[in-house]
Design brief:
The chain is an alpha/beta fold. The chain folds into two domains: 131 residues, Leucine Dehydrogenase, chain A, domain 1 (Rossmann fold), CATH 3.40.50.10860; 251 residues, 3-Layer(aba) Sandwich (Rossmann fold). It contains 17 helices and twelve strands. It has a seven-stranded mixed beta sheet, with helices on both faces. A five-stranded mixed beta sheet has the order 1-2-4-3-5. Strand 1 and strand 2 form a beta hairpin. The longest helix has 26 residues. Bound molecules: nicotinamide-adenine-dinucleotide.
């Protein structure tokens, strides 16, 4: 890459521009009205706000955003990022990605995203609560939140606690609104959340990569065998998404050889147990020093280790024109949003590395958020009606088979067969089905479209065409 281009990338780098580039690359292969494509491409509503909060006797002005990228389906949906680096360009990019993500996994929402410019790591819980509640009030004032309008969720720096504050604030303003808790997802289960939401994005990452690794011809090209067992994995970021992805790979028999956090990267050729590392991180607020591991460098070092699968699960722009040539993984699963810049991608694809794009791979979160929203609207837990019925039916089948065959099976086998599904089982099942179907559709589009040679372009083409058809069906563009 030319020096001037590198400098250009550093100085002027815009995440939203990256998304526009990916859009244009894919739109070339589609036959929709150019004006309609223009409508889809840009953000419909951008709300930038500033509000004061008083903490420890001092007033602080907080900058925050909510961007609704596309209203072709309502409500719009997307997480709220809590980070000191939040800016309008980033929130716009993330909102656009949400539109495409929802389309790819067939979740009936438009895309949105929120951002609050604050560092949750250095904030007291009291200050975070004040900021979150005030942010929610600002959204209510401008009609940027509601079960049928715009439904936030967790993102980088936020989790179930913040979502509980959002739901409670909204419910206070709308005490008679029966569906009030459906105004936000990712809530604690006791506050109307759903079992399986916490791990959903990481689990979706696992299901998506596992599906990609199931095609022999694709794995042959990468010099890998099919399946997850025995593969080596490196993960950047031990937060919600990174931890759960690492844990599911580990549980499936992969070896997580490298993990990085803000304090550095650690390596163990025999594999790192993510659960033990999480306990260590909670205690020390760091990963460096984890027993049995070697400190191999700063937060970026894990991106460059020898491994089969690399999972960037921290932030955007991590693999770029500067470091892409050092990446040795054969497959990269984009768990974070936008971890690879277009310049980085060119280099990686040129080196024969397979990239599974964010707009498919991290859609597990929004998929299970959709299940949570449905649960809130139906006011009943998944599995409540059918669990006992299924268990009784399975019991009768097992009895009948034992009587007819004259053979008995073990108590452990009976327990496994007879068990009716609970909420988590159903959520996992819906998520697995969603990720398999979506990957198949993206891969089919790549295989069946001359000129599309990578999964990102295929995923964008798939998403844009679904959104375009949705608009066309509305009759706006006859
Ligand atoms: P999180 O805040 O739970 O975790 C992120 C972790 O990354 C933190 O522990 C942080 O210390 C670490 N980190 C930050 N910079 C790093 C660096 N340079 N190197 C190594 N580690 C670093 O956030 P999350 O919810 O896990 O989100 C991570 C990414 O996944 C973001 O891009 C987010 O937009 C995306 N995502 C999240 C969800 C979700 O459901 N939470 C859904 C879809 C996409």
């Amino acid at each position: 890459m030319a020096v001037v281009e590198k400098l250009e990338e550093k100085r002027e780098h815009s995440f939203f521009d990256d998304v526009l580039k990916y859009f244009d690359n894919a739109a070339k292969f589609l036959d929709h009205d150019p004006q309609l494509l223009e409508q889809i491409k840009y953000c419909n509503s951008v709300y930038r706000m500033r509000f004061p909060v008083k903490c420890d006797g001092e007033i602080e002005v907080i900058e925050a955003y909510r961007v609704e990228h596309s209203h072709h389906k309502l409500p719009t949906k997307g997480g709220i990022r809590f980070s000191i680096h939040v800016n309008q360009d980033e929130v716009m990019a993330l909102a656009a990605l949400m539109t495409y993500k929802c389309a790819i996994v067939d979740v009936p929402f438009g895309g949105a995203k929120g951002g609050i410019k604050v560092s949750p790591r250095t904030c007291t819980p009291e200050k975070l609560e004040k900021i979150t509640r005030r942010y929610t009030t600002e959204l209510i004032k401008k009609n940027f939140i509601g079960p049928g309008i715009d439904v936030p969720a967790p993102d980088y720096g936020s989790g179930p606690q913040e979502m509980a504050w959002v739901a409670d604030t909204y419910s206070t303003f709308y005490p008679n609104e029966l569906n009030a808790v459906a105004c936000v997802t990712g809530k604690p289960v006791a506050q109307g959340g759903i079992a399986g939401r916490t791990e959903a994005t990481g689990l979706g990452v696992f299901y998506g990569v596992r599906q990609a690794c199931s095609y022999k011809e694709d794995m042959d090209k990468l010099g890998m065998t099919t399946g997850i067992e025995g593969k080596t994995v490196a993960v950047q970021g031990m937060g919600n998404v990174g931890y759960w992805a690492a844990k599911f790979f580990h549980d499936a028999g992969a070896k997580v050889v490298a993990i990085s956090e803000w304090d550095g990267s650690i390596y163990n050729t025999d594999g790192i147990d993510p659960e033990a590392l999480l306990a260590y991180k909670k205690e020390k607020n760091a990963v460096v020093g984890f027993p049995g591991s070697t400190h191999i460098g700063g937060p970026g070092a894990a991106l460059e280790v020898e491994c089969d699968i690399l999972i960037p699960a921290a932030l955007e722009n991590q693999i770029n024109g500067d470091n892409a040539a050092n990446v040795k993984a054969k497959l990269i699963g984009e768990a974070a949003n936008g971890p690879i810049t277009p310049a980085g991608e060119q280099i990686l694809l040129g080196n024969g590395i397979m990239i599974i794009p964010d707009i498919f791979l991290n859609a597990g979160g929004v998929t299970v958020s959709y299940f949570e929203w449905l649960k809130n609207l139906s006011h009943v837990r998944f599995g409540r009606m059918e669990k006992r019925y299924s268990a009784n039916m399975n019991h009768n089948i097992v009895q009948a088979i034992q009587e007819a065959s004259g053979k008995t099976i073990t108590a452990a086998q009976i327990a496994m067969i007879e068990r009716g599904p609970d909420e988590r089982d159903l959520v996992y099942s819906g998520l697995e089905e969603t990720m398999i179907n979506a990957y198949t559709a993206i891969r089919n589009r790549m295989m069946n479209t001359e000129g599309i040679n990578d999964l990102r372009t295929a995923a964008f083409a798939e998403a844009i065409s679904k959104v375009a058809v949705s608009y066309e069906n509305l009759g706006i563009f006859p």
